[in-house]
Amino acid sequence: MRTKLFLLGGLLLATAAASAWAHHGFAAEFEQTRPLKLKGTVTKWEVTNPHSWIHMDVKGEDGKVVAWMIEGGSPNNLYRLGFTKDSLPPGSEIVVEGYQAKDLSTVAVGKSVTFADGRKLFFSSQARESEPDKK
Amino acid sequence: MRNWLRDSMVAGIAVLCVLSLAAAPSVAQVLPYRTPRTADGKPNLSGIWQALNTADWDLQGHAAATGPVASLGAVFAKPPGLGVVEGDEIPYLPAMAAKKKENQANWTKLDPEVKCYLPGVPRATYLPYPFQIVQSQNNVLISYEYAGAVRIINMGAPTKAPADSWMGWSNGHWEGETLVVDVTSQMEDTWFDRSGNFHSDALHVVERYTPRSADTLTYEATIEDPKVFSRPWKISMPLYRRVEKNARLLEYKCPEFAEELLYGPLRKKASN
Amino acid sequence: MHRSLASTIVFAAAIAVPLIAQTSAAGQAQSVAAKAATAKTRPAAKAWAPPLTPDGKPDLQGVWTNNTVTPLERPKGLAGKEFYTEAELKDVQKQERERLAVIEEKGQPPANHSGVEGADADDVHYDFSQFGLDRAQAKLAWNRRTSIIVGTEGTIPPLTPDARKRLAEMRAKAKGHEFDGPENLNLGTRCIARVNVAPLLPSAYNSNLQIVQSPGYVAIETEMIHDVRIIPTDGRAHLPGSIHQWYGDSVGHWEGNTLVIDTTNYTDQNPFKGAQNLHVIERLSRADQDTILYQFTVEDPGMWTKPWSGELPITRISGQIYEYACHEANYGLADTLRGARVAEAEAAKKSVK
User: Fold this and answer.
1) What are the structural domains of chain A?
2) d(CA C185, CA C115)
3) In a domain, B25, yes or no
4) Which of B152, B166, B190 to mutate to test binding with chain C, by most C CBs within 10 Å of its CB?
5) pLDDT band at C26 (very low <50, low <70, confident <90, very high)
6) ipTM of this model?
7) Among A74, B227, C229, C351, which has the highest number of CB atoms less than 10 A from its own CB?
8) Is pTM beyond 0.90 here?
9) Cβ neighbours of residue B157 under 8 Å, at least 6 residues apart?
């Protein structure tokens, strides 16, 4: 019973703070029925707000290289956690799972972005360098 | 013997007094204005300030000229200005001078101010809107009315930026009466004015804010960018205190005013 | 005899008055501490004296966060329960750690990212935790409250009948037109204004602020969207009623160790859409070295049947705020409108067939 209440509390925060999330209609921007998986090389990490953008070159089956841009999150807390604009250098091999833009341009939102070997971009699988429950 | 010694000492002192009295007026003339102190003993720069010139139109000396929008006639023509660049020359590298001309010819399409983008430093200082300095011991906050631009100058040990930003990374310190601010890590996308004067991501600006009277400051900025200019160059201008009672910054959140320009073509067409 | 009685009375009064004063101060300090109910503060016999700025005002300066797990309104199942016990709070903290661990392993659960009210949950969004944007990846301002809104109910009061009608009309007008043009999107999406500024409500991430003070002014910069309120404390009047601003007009004054901020002259769009005469009163005071107690009251008789108040601690962080430029790289807004036009064209083609 208590568990339900606490989780409910979390959901309600999400609702109350919903308009605080700059949710600019992701499902209007990207096509839900067109999930994709891209493998390629980072050419630039645009560390902007409200969203950062990972630019990558993807080599198609025909051998042609296509430039994609992948929508990611605000970099500001990464800076607080010790990362910089150089923490995702050009040349990094990455894998993107996400959804393509509705207008079929080479733009996607990356639900999950990892290095080609499966490692997370910025965090190891166990350690968090933040202050999770420090009072 | 003693009388002679005493007399020459008196004479000597008298000469010194006369000399120092004679010197005093000219010494007083070159002493900088000494502004009232904050409670922690620093020159007090807090207040609302504004530049009163046409530097945002064109940093260099310029005559009046027809504006870009015919229907706005004399309301939005280019006003004349003496210029704020020392020597009136902006020393572009030969390869970069052509880019400035191209920028200038297409300025309404290319100038980030038209889109309400953050202006960077030093342009934020001489935009035609007021700004407010909130000066504290460890930080000097400058809030600009235009686009809600803001920066917080670190007055402690200098720090480094994790990435570039539109308003740059500011480390400050005091040199006598002057606040000196070292600005690095600015985005390359800002311009210096509406005449296409630009820079690269190697821009380095050093600002100097010096009180010159109770209600004016002297603002100087030395601009260095080896990718664009052959040598550092300098601008300077007075800044005037907004002295009206209850002077304050108001909101000029201009992203809204640029929406038609930026997104109008993407709007849903009215169905017939 | 008279003299000794008189002097005895005077002597007794001399002891009693300071004792009474101390007791009431202790009572005040205790109720303040109870309201704050942070794990860190201990009820003090004397009110804690905050450090002062060089010009003698309480020092609120520094870099702070109001990042929290506490919802604005109290969950229904907790009605009447304003505070968790210390043991229950430890449970909440444990659940928060577990929630983040699950997300880091499996990714975040689906939610409605469509921008359309009431739409189904989807996973068309980047994982916040990948970018350190999950709230548990930043310092949390823990406290025992079950909701930010104080009191036995802990919910926003009912709307007035007029407001209910007005909001229903606004909703009906907006339905089906969510992506017609930039003006149909919310103010945060347009990088114009956000709901975390006046009052200082927490945001999902980057919920940070920096305070800088100089004589006569307190400047509060919230990280998103680099918004600064410079609050004059000289007791000046509000702006004339003809001027409305997204964040209203804030004027302040000091009451002892508390900064009191009074804000009026909002538009009817922000932060509570439909409120046409919003009035917000905020109170900030240092509760201890690393905590500001933040209290706020929101009222608009044309919107809610009664005023409502909230309280949450604001805690110091060791990092700093960084520039959140927003409008300059807001590609998502253009992409959203473009995507909506594509969806309309596809729907039009289908209906022709």
Assistant:
1) 26-115 (2.40.50.140)
2) 8
3) no
4) B152
5) very low
6) 0.89
7) A74
8) no
9) none
